[in-house]
Design goal:
single chain, 302 residues, alpha+beta, 4 helices, 14 strands, globular
């Protein structure tokens, strides 16, 4: 299949002077009861970028680009993904087999969570409207930092299992597929890690929930970024990408930092990602997708 490259708007976090002294944040819960409180301090910078089609080119490598494309049919029907129990049992077993069969460096994987997204017809013109399902996320980001993922592990494991996990290296992977194809509606763009300047582009971000504070990475714009997507994505086209990894898996050398909220020692080959409005989007279609977060534990010596 021939590649279909497109030019599209990618949403970045702006290089704003406030971030020299204030950490970016966004609050996911209601704060209407707090006078003059703001839910975020994000300042966006939207850039038109070339988004290259993965099709018709060599398949990206997880450990080089931070993402890859696999062919993996599922036995589940689209309606099955509405059931969290089915996702965490039947679908997770499919995911577990896929990851362990494809990547021999992993000894086991652990389910963290999943997100079912079904674009509402009001998105993005009425972004912020309360919807039943999560909506596409246009802001370039990594879901978790090593610290945030470690906290997720601490909350999910008993004390002994957590102690043992501290002795293992791990990757936090997302497994992403559409539920109906071919899809060109708000597809997922992924940035080749080799085009990111780790000491310049990423910035830490607090994600504040009602009962906890997590942490993600956002991305400042850089014309060197190389973005990729899957055209006409079918259900069996599965994107696997790395969000973060355990603290020992680092890029050996990094440029100097620009401010206190950029910590380049955290990075291996991670894939910043963002949904984008493709010029090939058809108004009669709406994206449905499922992404599963897992922790993949590496074999000793991998």
């Amino acid at each position: 299949m021939a590649a279909i490259d497109v030019r599209a708007s990618i949403t970045y976090l702006a290089h704003h002077e406030s971030y020299q002294t204030e950490k970016p944040f966004n609050i996911t819960c209601s704060i209407d009861h707090i006078p003059e409180a703001k839910s975020t301090n994000h300042v966006f910078d939207r850039r038109e970028m070339l988004v290259q089609d993965v099709r018709g080119r060599p398949t990206p490598d997880l450990d080089q680009a931070g993402f890859t494309l696999l062919n993996a049919p599922t036995a589940l029907q689209p309606v099955d993904f509405d059931s969290p129990d089915l996702v965490q049992t039947r679908y997770f077993r499919e995911i577990e087999k896929l990851i362990l069969d494809t990547f021999p460096q992993y000894s086991s994987i652990m389910y963290l969570d999943h997100e079912l997204r079904k674009r509402d017809v009001a998105f993005p013109e009425q972004d912020g409207k309360v919807t039943r399902f999560a909506q596409p996320l246009p802001l370039a980001h990594l879901d978790l930092t090593p610290k945030a993922c470690r906290e997720r592990l601490r909350g999910a494991l008993d004390d002994e299992s957590y102690r043992l996990s501290e002795e293992q290296a791990w990757d936090q992977l997302n497994i992403w597929r559409v539920l109906r194809g071919p899809n060109n509606d708000w597809p997922l763009a992924l940035c080749d890690f080799r085009s990111v300047e780790p000491g310049r582009d990423p910035i830490l971000n607090d994600v504040i929930y009602a009962h906890e504070v997590s942490e993600s990475y956002l991305l400042h714009p850089n014309e060197k970024h190389e973005w990729h997507y899957v055209s006409d994505q079918e259900v069996e086209d599965v994107v696997v990408f790395r969000n973060t990894a355990s603290e020992g898996r680092k890029v050996p050398s990094m440029p100097s930092l620009q401010n206190a909220f950029q910590t380049p020692a955290d990075f291996v080959a991670d894939a910043w990602h963002a949904a984008f409005r493709s010029p090939r989007t058809q108004p009669t279609t709406a994206r449905e997708s499922i992404e599963v977060k897992v922790v993949a534990f590496l074999k000793t010596g991998s």
